[in-house]
Structures are given as C-alpha cells and as structure tokens.
Specification:
The chain is of the alpha/beta class. 48% of the residues lie in helices and 18% in strands. The chain has one domain: Rossmann fold, CATH 3.40.50.510. A four-stranded parallel β-sheet has the order 2-1-3-4, with helices on both faces. One of its GO terms (molecular function) is phosphoenolpyruvate-glycerone phosphotransferase activity.
C-alpha cells in the first residue's frame, strides 16, 4: 500500500484534487489518498500535527508520498517527519518536489503501470520545470 498525502494551504484544493484522483485514476487499489489542506480550524494554512498523525496512521504502508503546494507546506511536512521517533517510518516518507496537482495526479494514474518508486520519481521530474 502507498499513501498519497496532499498538503496545501487550502482544504478546497486538496479535497478537489483527492476527488479528481479518486474518480479518474482507476485501478488505484494500492493507493490511499489523504486531503490535508488548511488548518484544523478551517482557515488557510498547514497543520504539521495532522500530517504527523497521518504518518503514524500509515506507518505500515510501503511508502508515503507527500505532495505540497508552496513553501510552508513543505516546512510543515518536514516538521512532521522530524516529530517521528521511528526511523523506519521516516525512510518510507518522500516529500515530492513537483507541482501539487500535476504531480499527484500523474503519480496516481501511473502508479499501477510503473515497477518502482524510482520510476515514478523520474516521471515526476519531467513536470518539475525550473525557470
């Protein structure tokens, strides 16, 4: 099992992306998608505690891929990793450097057809355009 954790400052963004992946990425039996947008009180922002708790819940997964939108979403995800005491869980977590929507969707669609996480990461590099 692989978990996709969608981290954005907006719950609407992560909820919409999760809905899109759930409806369009067929054959994703081995993928569970989590929408972690916004703060616990419904405002814009990110919640490292919610991310940490999701990591703990998914510790038995083969891999946990974290897709983020902007800077502090990455920092919140990194802070959540730092809170973990278990190095085995930490090794499963990959904070993916790619556009949130395109990256998570592409990975979800292709995950059943690719033989390794490294192959997925290579595919994601193709959409990570630097200016």
């Amino acid at each position: 099992m692989i978990s996709f954790i969608l981290v954005s400052h907006s719950k609407k963004i992560t909820d919409g992306l999760k809905e899109m992946i759930d409806q369009m990425a067929l054959n994703q039996e081995n993928v569970t998608v989590f929408s972690l947008g916004g703060t616990s009180d419904g405002n814009l922002g990110t919640d490292p505690i919610a991310i940490y708790e999701t990591f703990q819940e998914r510790k038995s997964d083969d891999a946990i891929l974290v897709f983020t939108d902007i800077g502090s979403a990455v920092m919140s995800s990194e802070a959540a990793v730092d809170m973990l005491d278990d190095d085995a869980i930490k090794q499963k977590i990959h904070i993916v450097n790619c556009p949130l929507v395109e990256g998570a969707f592409m990975a979800a669609v292709q995950i059943e057809n690719i033989d390794s996480l490294e192959s997925i990461f290579e595919e994601l590099k193709s959409i990570n355009k630097e200016f």
